[in-house]
Structures are given as structure tokens and as C-alpha cells.
Amino acid sequence: MTLFDENEPRPSRGAALLALTREDLTLFGVEELKERIETLQSEIDRSRTALDGKQSTKSAADALFSFKS
Question: Least enclosed by CB within 10 Å: which of 26, 33, 42, 47?
């Protein structure tokens, strides 16, 4: 089972984020905006965690393959 129909082009990376930034926020109520902020903050935290992991892995690889004498 695949997430996408094989006959349809896959969405480009970041397309969902771009669509999110184009939403008309005037249509949201106060509670909806608070919920949106909480959700976006959670995604920021998740992204930072992923970034930290990648930077750690890159640093380890750089140290392993560093041929300084």
C-alpha cells in the first residue's frame, strides 16, 4: 500500500508548509488561532529535535573522517 496514487505526481517537499502560510487567518476564531499556534510550536520543536540529531550525526561523521595529522 502506498501513501500516494502512483499516477499522481507527489507533492513537493514543503508544499504543505507553503499552503499553510497562505491561509487566510482572518477566518479563524481566537481558540482556533491558539490551537494553531500550539500545533505549529509542536512542529517547531519536532523540527529542532530532527535538526539536532542530524547535526550530531554530521559532527560524528566529520570527526571520524577527518584526516588531520
Answer: 26
